[in-house]
């Protein structure tokens, strides 16, 4: 396929300037004549007919798309708004972006707004010597583009995966936008990010084209760093791992009780070395108790009279000597 540029100025702009791996056009946009190539950061679009591109942008990320059995290469393009395109699409890549994919099996793959990546034709032309993959397509709803091995299934099931500390537990939450023949999620935990142990299992919905949310509570996390990942298992036994997320459990030995409280709130401090002060804040953000010299153990000096406080949720701030703050919540009946 022989491509030409519209003008010399456009050739310089699109073929020589990377513009931080991003190309943006406003409402005025521009028009590409047939067989005229637009190249942005290794992605080349050569329409077979008239093509207009306006109020949009093209950018790329080095974060691969999760897949089975392999992830995509470490080059994923995103359109600001989905486009329809008929013509030739070419993606260039570097060897260090292959991400365990075999060059000879690379195929062009795309996704729409629901982020379900599919290899639609397996007709891509691979050139491992010049490091590019190209294909003549007639596609609609193109939001994302990347490369993956032929036969890979790339449903971007995970929208997010987060870990948050609540009281003395760590709550893991994740969402999927699409599931096909999924079986279960195996929750794995590590204290160092290298050695993993299975701590739980959550059943999957198996088939879904809608956003579905999951929650798992780790009731006995380690003091300090806690790393988590999901082993996502399909019904045929194949699996893939999610990205790793982590949460920190404070090593402070500070206990507040009872919770909820009706009269006296006791504050038990087992270790004073990192603690600078303790403050109780009411629902209006006003400080109702403060001590800059917490006592070790369970003493009357570390008690707060809640009898005359209005009902609501109060915040306990434990200020450390390094300036960081550990917080907790107390309910007043």
From TrEMBL:
Q: Which UniProt keywords apply?
A: Signal
The Secretion system C-terminal sorting domain extends over 257-326
Recorded protein name is T9SS type A sorting domain-containing protein
Matching entries from Pfam families are given as:
Por_Secre_tail
| Signal sequence extent | 1-21
**Lineage: superkingdom:** Bacteria
């Amino acid at each position: 396929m022989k491509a030409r540029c519209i003008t010399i100025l456009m050739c310089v702009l699109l073929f020589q300037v990377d513009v931080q791996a991003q190309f943006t056009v406003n409402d005025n946009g521009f028009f590409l004549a047939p067989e005229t190539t637009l190249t942005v950061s290794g992605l080349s679009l050569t329409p077979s007919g008239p093509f207009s591109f306006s109020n949009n942008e093209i950018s790329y990320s080095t974060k691969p798309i999760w897949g089975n059995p392999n992830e995509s290469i470490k080059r994923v393009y995103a359109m600001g708004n989905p486009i329809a395109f008929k013509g030739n699409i070419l993606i260039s890549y570097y060897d260090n972006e292959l991400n365990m994919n075999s060059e000879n099996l690379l195929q062009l793959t795309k996704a729409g707004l629901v982020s379900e990546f599919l290899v639609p034709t397996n007709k891509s032309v691979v050139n491992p010597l010049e490091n590019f993959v190209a294909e003549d397509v007639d596609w609609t709803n193109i939001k994302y583009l990347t490369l993956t091995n032929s036969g890979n299934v790339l449903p971007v099931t995970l929208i997010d995966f987060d870990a948050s500390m609540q009281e003395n537990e760590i709550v893991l939450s994740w969402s999927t936008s699409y599931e096909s023949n999924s079986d279960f999620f195996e929750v794995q935990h590590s204290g160092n990010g290298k050695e993993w142990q299975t701590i739980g299992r959550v059943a999957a919905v198996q088939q879904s084209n809608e956003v579905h949310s999951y929650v798992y509570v780790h009731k006995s996390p380690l003091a300090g760093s806690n790393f988590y990942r999901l082993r996502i298992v399909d019904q045929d036994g194949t699996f893939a791992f999610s990205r790793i997320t982590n949460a920190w459990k404070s090593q402070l030995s500070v206990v507040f009780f009872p919770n909820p409280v009706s009269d006296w709130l006791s504050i038990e401090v087992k270790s004073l070395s990192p603690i600078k002060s303790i403050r109780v804040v009411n629902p209006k953000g006003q400080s109702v108790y403060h001590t800059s010299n917490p006592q070790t153990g369970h003493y009357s000096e570390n008690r707060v009279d809640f009898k005359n406080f209005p009902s609501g949720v109060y915040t306990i701030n434990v200020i450390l000597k390094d300036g960081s703050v550990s917080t907790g919540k107390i309910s007043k009946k």
